[in-house]
Every structure is written in C-alpha cells, then in structure tokens.
C-alpha cells in the first residue's frame, strides 16, 4: 500500500535530509544555548523553548559527519533549530536538533523510500529510514525516533534532573 507523507527537508554539511513532519514541531532561528558540563559530545546544551528546557543536539556530531575546525568555527553561529516531538515510553519528549538550513516541506511516497545502502561513508546509517531521489539530488530520510536511543534518553533525563 502506497502512502504519501509530508517531510521537512534540511541540509547538513551540504547534503539534503528529510524528517517526517509528524515529528517536526517547528523551526526556530539560533537560540541562546546553555552548556551543561559532562554531556555527550553531540549535546550542545539546552535551550528555552516556550518556557520549557529543551535539550539541543548537534546533528552533525550525532550522525558522525566530519567537519574540519575552520568549517565548525564558521558555522558555530549560523544554524537553525528544528524542534522535534518524539514518542518515548508512552509519552512525548521535545528536543532540538541543529541543522544548517531548512529548505521546504515536500510530499514523499513511502514506496519511493529505498533502504539505505551499506557502503560505508561518513553518516551513521542507524539513524536513517532510507533514501529517496528528488529531481537531481538524493534525500537521506532521517528516522527521528532513533536520533536518541532509549539509553541516551534515560541518561540525558537523569543528568538534567540532577543538574
């Protein structure tokens, strides 16, 4: 059965990604980040989103994308935050993910999403639902619910409560 869903597209390191809009709550411009000591390297810290403390993840680091120091320093001030709402243990959690640029919302037919080939590369494919083609480019379809695995969520929650 073919189903069409809407996806928010964004860029990371020059490549285009897509995430199901059911998980994408909103997009915000750069926000003040409060850094928390001893967090995993992919955690940028926390931000204030509508009066709530929301963890902020550097999606470049989480996905294993390599950036050189000059690129990292140049882009450290220019980024966009996608606020994701994810199901976890019968409730939902909110977290922000840092991306380079948000593009648009598009329709993708589920039959057009192919398994991601395991040919190596710079992206950790555990977090990908698959890959699809749009016009002359490929879109890596992110599985938002895998961005933070259960044990990482648990450790993050414990750390934020203890802080």
Notable characteristics:
single chain; 163 residues; mainly beta; OB fold (Dihydrolipoamide Acetyltransferase, E2P); 5-stranded mixed beta sheet; 3 helices; 10 strands; globular
SSE order and pairing:
Layout: E1 4-12, E2 15-20, E3 24-29, E4 43-49, E5 52-58, H1 59-62, H2 69-75, E6 80-88, E7 91-99, E8 101-109, E9 128-134, E10 137-142, H3 150-162
Parallel strand pairs: 2-10, 5-7
Antiparallel strand pairs: 1-2, 1-8, 3-6, 4-5, 6-7, 9-10
Spatial strand sequence of the major β-sheet: 8-1-2-10-9
CATH superfamily: CheA-289, Domain 4
Contiguous runs where pLDDT drops below 50 for at least 5 residues: none
Shape: globular
**Count of extended strands:** 10
**Strand coverage percent:** over 45%
Q: Overview of this structure, please?
A:
With 163 residues, the chain is mostly beta strands. It has a single domain (4-162), classed as CheA-289, Domain 4 (OB fold (Dihydrolipoamide Acetyltransferase, E2P), Beta Barrel), CATH 2.40.50.180. The protein has helices at 59-62, 69-75, 150-162; strands spanning 4-12, 15-20, 24-29, 43-49, 52-58, 80-88, 91-99, 101-109, 128-134, 137-142. The strands form 2 sheets. It has a 5-stranded mixed sheet with strand order 8-1-2-10-9, with no helix packed on it. The longest helix has 13 residues, at 150-162. The radius of gyration is 16 Å and the shape is globular. The model has no long low-confidence stretch (mean pLDDT 81).
């Amino acid at each position: 059965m073919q189903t069409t869903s809407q996806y928010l597209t964004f860029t990371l390191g020059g490549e285009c990604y897509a995430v199901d809009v059911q998980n994408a709550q909103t997009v915000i411009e750069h926000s003040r980040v409060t850094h928390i000591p001893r967090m995993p390297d992919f955690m940028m810290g926390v931000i204030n989103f509508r009066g709530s403390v929301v963890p902020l993840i550097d999606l470049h680091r989480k996905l294993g994308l390599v950036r050189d120091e000059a690129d990292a320093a140049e882009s450290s001030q220019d980024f966009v935050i996608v606020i994701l709402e994810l199901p976890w243990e019968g409730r939902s959690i909110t977290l922000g993910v840092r991306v380079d640029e948000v593009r648009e919302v598009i329709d993708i037919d589920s039959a057009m999403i192919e398994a991601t080939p395991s040919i190596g590369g710079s992206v950790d494919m555990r977090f990908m639902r698959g890959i699809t083609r749009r016009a002359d480019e490929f879109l890596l379809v992110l599985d938002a619910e895998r961005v933070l695995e259960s044990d990482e969520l648990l450790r993050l929650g414990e750390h934020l409560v203890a802080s």
